[in-house]
Amino acid sequence: MQTRFPILFPTVLVIMCAAAIAGVLWGTADISWSDRFAILMQRDDAPRGLSLIVWQWRVPRVLAVALIGAGLALAGALMQTALRNPMADPYLMGLSSGASAAAVAAIIWLPSYLTDFFGVPLIAFLGAALAFLMTLGLSQHRGQAMDPLVVILAGVAVSLMFQSLTAFFLYVGDPHATRSAIGWLMGTAAGTEWNEVPLLAIAVVVIAFLFMAKSNALDATLLGEERAQALGIRTNRLRMMIFFATVLLTGLAVSVAGIVGFVGLIVPHMARLLIGARHRVLLPMTMVLGATVLIAVDLLCRTLLAPEELPLGVLLALFAAPPFIFILRGLRRAG
Amino acid sequence: MPVEPALSLDNVAVNVAGKAYVRNVSLTVPKGEVHGLLGPNGAGKTTLLRCLYRAADVTSGRVHAQGKEITDYTHQEWAKTVGALVQSSGLLAGLTPRDIVEIGLSVLDLPAHEYATRCDEALSLVGLADKQHQSAGALSGGELQRCYFAQLLACDPDIYVLDEPTNHLDLHYQLVLLDEVKRRGRTVLMTIHDLNLAARYCDRVYLMSEGEILAQGAALDVLTRDNLIKHYAVDGQFVGKALELAGPILGQLDQLETD
Question: Where do runs of H (alpha helix) occur along chain B?
Fold first, then answer.
């Protein structure tokens, strides 16, 4: 299947670029074609207000959702490999619940000067990191090798704990703050600024190159723990690298756009169906597909009910469920 | 001239979570010989092999391969010298049998043309050439075992460590693949439950029970009626019948092959 890569990868790359251009050209504000052209070329006759919308608002937003889509899909693919579980996703180790509980607590409970000083993104990142450390702590057993199944169960336990905390905060919180917290929970890229892009870009690019260089070891991991070890792979070390990369990618994604589900679970499966499971083709394909999906969904969120914006989570779940069922059927056929 | 030992274990003990699984095992496999670890379930055979493909650490004792201690090898160097066929389940969605063989070969830094040749040869040897681009997840248990056999044969390390190599294989492939291993003249240490196959292929066998080697020597000297009754706890009459049957059957197969 990897032989399809030279054709499919450039195709998806072109679709991604087209989606990104569409994401910049269309949005809640209606701009005429002549103005769009003037703005993109940065000509002097471009209307200042609209130019500001495109360059200060839409471009960083499209870049951010592309990086978040790529990063979450990459993290999902790596987690599925690390745990050899097709249901694994970037949030598996309690990251989303930890981030949510921390963010909701900050939005509802913390005095606004504290929330403003630290910022909800940083607080959410710390929540994700805390949940990760708890899951990791629960998964370790007296220096023995880590059992993927125990990691998954520990992640479920930590998730449930933070979910009930989040529910409690929402239940007892002031209704106005609660609405703003729910908006955050559903994920949105609205209000993304240029200064949020570089850190995301660096993390995604560095982690992608790091694991591309380890694609042989990742391939071997798919064959099973002991088979990989017999091929000279230090599986525990590789798995810890994957976990830390996932925390970084997911934590950053969550801090910029809140909880964006499904991309990390489904996109890696889409990529596997298209070009197979060898990581040197799977990882780039997964990232470009993840970016494409999220750019497209974000564009729909902005335009479907314009001038109102839908949260990313609402449309993602709607569009992700049918392909997910299709993919599950494909996986069953593939055994 | 003494034969050069390719693989040697000296007083090896393995404890897992405080429990002793292997106690003071010493054995030496000379270059080019096939040695078999026999014994009932839970005897410590697989635990011992796990140390040899570095899935477990030796608690005490020493392991040498080609005169160099295991700890002096990096994991990758070790994998190039000691190749293993192991029991372990993976996530095979999106992989083909050819992928599986290639993944094994990626351990060795081979030039591209040799990579492809070795893959082709190994896959046709195990009878999977026509299925090499199908989904590995759809293979039967026996086909998958042949696929992993192909991976090992393609890598063709100096030392083979085989954990129940005939698992899921039909009689034809049990004989074809073990014959191929023997033909290559590599150093082999394997666990095997089929005593007939052990007698046929092993230059020397070790009978293990409760983590210790209780008897060792040529297969026919170790696989005595008394030893089998004692360590496998089976009915004496049955063992007698099995041993009696095994001789003629294997003899007939040899006859068929020479024909």
Answer: 45-52, 75-81, 97-105, 112-125, 141-155, 171-184, 195-201, 219-222, 225-232, 236-258
ipTM: 0.90
State whether B59 and B106 are in the same domain: yes
- B120 shares its domain with B232: no
- Residues of chain A positioned with their CB less than 8 A from the CB of B107: 216, 231-232
Q: Beta-carbon neighbour count of residue B174 at 10 Å?
A: 21
- pLDDT(B249) > 70: no
Residue A80 — pLDDT band, cuts 50, 70, 90? very high
Between B255 and B47, residue with greater pLDDT: B47
For chain B, the domain total comes to: 2
Angle between helices A95-108 and A148-172 (to 10 degrees): 20
Of residues B65, B1, B2, B4, the one with CA closest to residue B30: B4
In this structure, the answer to whether residues B151 and B215 fall within a common structural domain is: yes
Instruction: Give the residue numbers spanning the domain of B215.
Output: 5-223
Q: Are residues B67 and B185 part of one domain?
A: yes
Instruction: Please say if the pLDDT value at position A335 is more than 50.
Output: no
pTM of the model: 0.89
Distance from C-alpha of A202 to C-alpha of B118, rounded to nearest angstrom: 40
The domains found in chain A, sorted by start residue, are 2-333 (1.10.3470.10)
For the ranges A184-188, A217-221, B140-144, the lowest mean pLDDT is seen at: A184-188
- Cα separation, A207 vs A284, in Å, equals 12
Distance CA A259, CA A71 (A): 13
Question: Radius of gyration (Cα) for chain A, nearest Å?
Answer: 20
Q: Give A40: exposed, middle or buried? Use CB within 10 Å, 0-12, 13-18, 19+.
A: middle
Tokens of A236: 């525990």
| Test mutation, A223, A279, A331, chain B, max B CBs within 10 A | A223
Claim to verify: residue B163 and residue B237 sit in the same structural domain? no
Closest CA to A128 of A13, A244, A33, A213: A244
Distances (CA, A) of A140 to A146, A254, B88: 6, 26, 21
Name B207's Cβ contacts closer than 8 Å, sequence gap at least 6.
B38, B39, B213, B214, B215, B216, B222, B223, B227, B231
Q: B208 and B187, same structural domain?
A: yes
Residues B117 and B174 in one domain: yes
Cβ of A227 and B88 within 8 Å? yes
Question: Nearest 5°: phi and psi at B64?
Answer: -120, 140
A232 vs B79, B88, B89: nearest CB: B79
A283 secondary structure, DSSP code: H
Q: Is the pLDDT of residue B253 over 60?
A: no
- Beta-sheet strand order (sheet of B68-69): B19-30, B5-16, B60-65, B68-69
Same domain, B219 and B232: no
Nearest-neighbour CA in chain B from A80: distance (Å) = 9
